[in-house]
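Q: What structure does this chain adopt?
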Amino acid sequence: MVNVSDLSMERYHALSDATMTTLLERLEDLLDTVGNNAYEVDYHSGVLTLNLGTHGTYVINKQPPNKQIWLSSPLSGPKRYDYVSESDDWRYARDGIGLGELLDEEITGMLRTKVYLHLEGVSTQIQE
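A:
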């Protein structure tokens, strides 16, 4: 895990923005494929909301003061993700599971269709 003090604010924003943009695009594609009008994804001011109807709502947001991405899941509750350079993704310190891994697993179970959001390799998605 990157020590928070070692991650510059500029780098944090580049990594978190790339993650949120990728997540939004992949979730939009997923919801288009699923075709359920009760499901929707929205992103404004660093906050992504994924409404899966009766399954519940995910809220994923940037937390610049902590240099983290925070998740509120209807299944697993709140989690705080730190950027880990070794795996080039966002990981929850308590269990080591990546943000993408958790979302893939939970959303796959909810939608009963295999979901793979490909959130690893975030640094390669930064527009320089």
